[in-house]
Amino acid sequence: MSQRKLKFGLVGVGNIGKVHAKYLSEMAKVEFVAVCDMVQEKADQAASQYGAKAYYTASELLAHSGLDVVIIAVPHYDHPTIAIEAFERGIHVMCEKPIAVHVNDANRMIAAYEAAKGSYPDLQFAIMFQERTLPFYAKLKELVASGALGQLTRATWIHTKWFRSQTYYNSGGWRATWAGEGGGILTNQCPHTLDMYQWLFGLPARISGHAHIGKYHDIEVEDEVTAYFEHANGMIGHLIVTTAELPGTNRLEIVGDLGKLILENGKLLHFPYGQSMLTFTRETEQHFANWEISPVEIEVDTSAETGHSFVTQRLVARLLGQDVDLIAEGPEGLGAVTLANGIMLSSFENRPVDVPLDGDAFQAHLEEKIRSSNFVKKVNTMPAAAVDMSASFGSKS
């Protein structure tokens, strides 16, 4: 394994950018050399704190900093533009979620990556889906992939632990606007949930979505969503999310022909069936039945390393010659964007939509929302020191 240090740069010194800056400054095998923010004061302060050079445009940073890797932590619309320029320069990319606001931009970004690999065969593209490292989700992936549940029939996810106050929404002019963020809970808070759904079950064949715009907050985008997914193999899925519920619930039920899993409150319960549920349904002579099954609690090692730093460490290890998997390859980010766009397109048009999506149709709706918006955003600047980003990250339990 190479002993050299990789030169990292960071674009965006907002709330999540500060998280990246801190661990980069402490990470072995990494030299944190450049930081960029369009607000010069933010860039200068971070550069001074971490001994990096300050830049005020992403293009300037990419052209003159001599980077090996760039972390992109800016508002979502800018992810593709910065990533594509980095790819063209042979610079490896770690992108914050989501990779793009809409599938057309996501596909453009992925195509640029694939094209750049013609000139830079070892080019790497990773996305920051750190929740894949959380022990309970990793165990779910293992169990589902093992086939222990047999044919999957239903997945229902109620995830309302995304509370955000009006003060949160007022903390940035770009937040919760069509032009600045491109959406609400599906674009900002739930990309991890959407990624986890498609990571576990794959993409559905059809999506029905119901999105409520500014139902509980003074915002112009969605803050409550219910979606129904139909999969090609017959499985159905449900997703219920909101940023306006306290104390909030995070409950995932996965039902299969041979058993059921329930994850809630730091416990993973397995209900093993003694026989095939579907065969029993077809063949039993009983008119009514109820299986009394005692659940088995699945042991999960919650001491496993997780989080943003761990995801970046995997990218560093690969770049320095280790044969390791990335937590999430960049092109995998298309799945979460597809679900988000599909839910909103279905809601906009009041009909189910098929997957693959009509990206042009969704983009047209989004551009019309931006063009016709007369929403006046209230902005109250909160001192950066008062924002604790750890409260927004998924816990190991």
TrEMBL record:
InterPro entries: Gfo/Idh/MocA-like_OxRdtase_N, Gfo/Idh/MocA_Oxidoreductase, GFO_IDH_MocA-like_dom, NAD(P)-bd_dom_sf. The lineage of its organism: Bacteria, Bacillati, Bacillota, Bacilli, Bacillales. One of its GO terms (molecular function) is nucleotide binding. Residues 6-116 form the Gfo/Idh/MocA-like oxidoreductase N-terminal domain. PANTHER family: D-GLUCOSIDE 3-DEHYDROGENASE, UDP-N-ACETYL-2-AMINO-2-DEOXY-D-GLUCURONATE OXIDASE. Residues 137-261 form the GFO/IDH/MocA-like oxidoreductase domain. This is Gfo/Idh/MocA family oxidoreductase.
